[in-house]
Design brief:
The protein has about 260 residues and is of the alpha+beta class. It has 2 domains: about 5-140, 2-Layer Sandwich (Fructose-1,6-Bisphosphatase, Chain A, domain 1); about 150-260, 3-Layer(aba) Sandwich (D-Maltodextrin-Binding Protein, domain 2). About 40% of the residues lie in helices and about 30% in strands. The strands form 3 sheets. An 8-stranded mixed sheet has the order 4-3-5-6-7-8-9-10. Strands 12-11-13-15-14 form a 5-stranded mixed sheet, with helices on both faces. Strands 1-2 form a two-stranded antiparallel ribbon. Helix 1 (about 5-30) runs antiparallel to helix 2 (about 45-60) and helix 6 runs parallel beside helix 7. The longest helix is centred in the N-terminal third of the chain and has 25 residues, at about 5-30. It is globular and about 50 Å long. The N and C termini lie far apart (about 50 Å).
């Protein structure tokens, strides 16, 4: 029997809050148990945070499948939870206060409810397909009258691009090209923080170049429910472009297409 999307979104919020409370306390404690590589960090906090998210989900929906960044895919069925327990691990490990937790539930592989929690600002974003998006319980909208020339664009570069020399070079060229179109390009290395800014209209757009699905499911649903016009071809060519209006989306997309075509 299908679950109501608002019910699923409420449990997603509960799950990310359980992770976020732990991450906030651990971050302020100042010590990080982690393994570092040239392109990524794996912290013990990731695993502990994921267990806390998973416990909440299993308490409410023991028959749902689970797909966590740390534990992989467990179980099968029409409902599957996709979780990034610590989005921004590099930031967390280095003491930079930009990180979040994300959980999205998919029905037949389509995200229908999601929540993102930023522990240090105590900001909870929630989205339910067809039901809109909220920030700390209040409706949120991506609408903005700020022109792209005066705005900020977030650039999200996923590990599949970071680890591939050709794609990494493309990402660098994309960033340079985007700088010609807007006031500023930012790469926070915590995509869910960027998704929240996009949903509330604080930034003009977001470009994801081979982003990872662990946060993409939650972020793209939040964006859609806040009114973002998006071009999402992540499954096909690894590209997401979203902005508050179709003209800006087309403009950003044309910039990215031009770089890729010339590569």
């Amino acid at each position: 029997m299908p679950h109501a999307t608002d019910e699923l979104a409420a449990i997603a919020s509960e799950a990310v809050a359980a992770s976020g409370e732990y991450l906030r306390a651990t971050f302020r404690n100042g010590s990080v148990d982690a393994e570092f590589s040239s392109t990524d960090v794996k912290a013990a906090a990731d695993r502990e945070a994921e267990q806390r998210v998973r416990q909440v989900i299993e308490d409410h929906y023991p028959d749902h499948a689970f797909h966590g960044e740390e534990s992989g895919r467990v179980g099968d069925g029409p409902y599957r939870w996709v979780v990034d327990p610590l989005d921004g691990t590099n930031n967390f490990a280095s003491g930079y206060p930009k990180f979040a937790t994300a959980a999205a539930v998919c029905r037949d592989d389509e995200p229908v409810a999601a929540a993102i929690y930023e522990p240090l600002t105590d900001a909870t974003y929630r989205a339910a397909r067809g039901g809109g998006a909220t920030l700390n319980g209040e409706p949120v909208s991506a609408a903005s009258t700020r022109p792209l020339e005066h705005g900020t664009v977030a650039l999200v570069i996923g590990l599949p691009a970071v680890r591939d020399p050709a794609r990494a070079a493309q990402a660098e060229r994309i960033e340079l090209a985007l700088r010609e179109e807007c006031k500023r390009v930012v790469a926070t290395w915590a995509p869910c923080v960027d998704w929240g800014l996009l949903a509330r209209g604080s930034i003009a757009g977001l470009v994801g170049f081979h982003p990872e699905r662990y946060e993409q499911h939650a972020g793209s649903l939040l964006a859609a429910e806040s009114g973002i016009d998006a071009r999402d071809t992540v499954d096909d060519d690894g590209l997401y472009v979203g902005a508050h209006d179709s003209a800006t989306t087309e403009r950003l997309g044309a910039v990215v297409d031009g770089v890729i075509a010339d590569s």
